[in-house]
Amino acid sequence: MKSLRFTSYAAKVKSPSIGEHRAVLYPEVVLCVEVYHSSRKWVKTQEFLVLGHQTLIELRDKIHCSTDQVMLKAGQHDPSGYFLIEDVFFNDLRDPSAIDYSEPIFDWLRNSKDEALKKWESITTGELQQKQKAIVGAVTDLQLPQFKAVDMHMTRFCDLTFRLGAGYLYCHQGDCKHAIVIRDMRLIHSEDVHNRAGYPIVLFQLKSRVQKCDVCKIYRATKVTVDDKWAQKNPCYFCKDCYFLLHYGKDESLLYNDFSVYDYQHD
Ligand SMILES: [Zn+2]
Ligand SMILES: [Zn+2]
Q: Which member of 79, 81, 144, 190 has the lowest number of beta carbons within 10 Å of its beta carbon?
């Protein structure tokens, strides 16, 4: 199980500062997992080393996304979330108030099978096959994958069926979606951290940048709105001027008030 692109991270990784020591279960596998930005699709935000015997929950708890903080500030934080890896939804249902996000998807797959099949076909078939289909008609009997739903905290990385380098999904706070890639997999070696409590190890963390106004994309954001019907995003960031222009009329009265607004502080 040693990958060809063997990379030693040991030099870059410091031992965990956590006092607790939990022995690694041998033989152990180390996986390198990448997390991508929710809107800037090709920007990697984090990279981790996780152990094969760790559960998906342990990774989820280390994923940092500003949407979590925004929703927390807005008093609308939702503990739900899932990973979609191959055909399996791994739902985080630890919190009693957590929602099974995969349920409406399964309902849709059941109730709108034709629509789902069409979407699946356009995802899986290339341009050539689509052209062939236009000329000779459908030749293959396309089937939707047999999707399943499982509890996230019941699943360890070593129980997963996955392909190295394939794009999977992490979804949280309703519809904040991140691509996840398992980039590498190898056996643990002597230079690795051998304290289970130290994992997942953060190998890379994108530095937070200045949040710009979503409207003019020039000035620093000073306000953030949630569930704002005229905003292009949810949450939406505004500079002082753009916020005023969108939300206030000529007589300086608020045009609508069925949304939440907060002062935005840069970290
Ligand atoms: Zn997110
Ligand atoms: Zn602006």
A: 190
Mean pLDDT of 123-143: 72
The three-state secondary structure class of 67 is helix
Ligand number nearest CA of 36 is: 1
pLDDT of 10 reads 46
180-220 pLDDT per residue, tens:
999 999 999 999 999 999 999 999 999 877 789 999 999 99
SS3 call for 151: strand
Closest CA to 245 of 227, 210, 219: 219
In a 3-state reduction of DSSP, which class is residue 260? strand
What spacing in Å lies between the alpha carbon of 220 and ligand 2's midpoint?
Answer: 7
CA of 43 from ligand 2 middle (Å) equals: 23
Can you list the alpha helix ranges (DSSP code H) found in the chain? Answer: 56-60, 66-73, 102-111, 113-124, 127-136, 240-247
Beta bridge partners of 46: 35, 205
Q: What's the CATH architecture for 29-107+139-205?
A: Roll (3.10)
Ligand closest to 63 (CA) is 1
The domain segmentation of the chain, as residue ranges, is 29-107+139-205, 223-263
